[in-house]
Amino acid sequence: MTDKRIYQIGLTMINGVGDILARHLLQTLGDAEAVFAEKKPLLEKVPGIGSHIAAEIKRPEILQRAEKELAFIEKNNISCYYLADTDYPLRLRECPDAPVLFYFKGNTDLDATRIISVVGTRNATEYGRGLTESLIKDLAETIPGLLVVSGLAYGIDICAHRSALRSQLPTVAVLAHGLDRIYPSSHRNTAVELLESGGLLTDFPSGTEPDRPNFLRRNRIVAGMSDCTIVVESAEKGGSLVTADIAFSYGRDVCSFPGRVGDNHSKGCNNLIRQNKAGLITSADDLISALCWDIQATATPVQAELPFFDTDISTPEQNPVLAIMRTQNEIHINELALALDMPVHQLSTQLFELEISGKIKVLPGNIYKLS
């Protein structure tokens, strides 16, 4: 029997198929293996595919590359997280462009009760480094299990990782390349330390170079994994502002430290605050207050806060989506979202899970019905 992960990995290696189109293929055809098994004429009829991408899907080299990647991750004890798997991080699953599959090497809970992303300029000043160190040190004293996410880059990123390690907090680095290398190489020792309590995460296969577009693409994962993205220090333009914009688009919290008026290293932060895209913070206490974290209360698991994403809730009596669909023969996704008072992008994730598990069917035009 062929390992199903070969098809899942292969789905991410098809030229012209990104995460959103891959989701559409899965919703239409059922699973990754079915995508590769489908005949080319039928693939061409799937909206968004056409003859060119259908030809790419049928190339035998795709699955050959996927087999090699599977051998690589098994040899190096790398975990593979697939969107339909139950252990796929719940926060990330909510994002409409979440990676269909990603790789993780390390030792931490990617569904930790509280997660923050800390980002900023690569040209950090003493002011920015000091803010980062103080923030994480103070948070560690109050929230021992906090997971810190960043990008292992120069400046604020590496400062955040090293501050977390010193404070004995788990920390995850999201990479813009495969797990067969570390960039920049000067951060290799820190990357190795991360593996003990934290880890390295990427949606790029081995052999992928740290090209510029990859850094922008990985920012969606940095933003999507956490409850809040914190911009410590940023010029008027930069990758950290892209991350903040993505987090804002996801409906996640964004916070930023202000800088002096006219300071080029803080123009981006001041702009975020002025545009009401980020809350102003000056300390760990400010952040805890802004996020309404009750640090005295017993932590509630993320799964308990997001019952809609529990695929074990399989009957109409247990699942509000199925309960509504039972009363109507067919229903459009917008009507369903309105009835549930739920954002469409969150509802799409649950509908995808219910479809994968065979409980519902999707019809043309985003119309759904019970199986």
Report on the structure:
- The structure is a single chain.
- The protein is α/β, with parallel strands linked by helices.
- Helices cover 44% and strands 13% of the residues.
- The protein is built from 18 helices and twelve strands.
- The chain has helices spanning 4-11, 19-29, 32-37, 40-44, 50-57, 60-75, 90-93, 126-142, 156-166, 188-194, 212-224, 239-249, 267-274, 284-290, 302-305, 320-326, 333-340, 344-356; strands at 79-82, 101-107, 115-119, 147-150, 171-174, 198-202, 228-231, 253-256, 279-280, 331-332, 360-363, 367-370.
- The strands form two sheets. A nine-stranded mixed sheet has the order 1-2-6-5-4-3-7-8-9, sandwiched between helices.
- Strand 8 (253-256), helix 13 and strand 9 (279-280) form a beta-alpha-beta unit.
- The radius of gyration is 21 Å and the shape is globular.
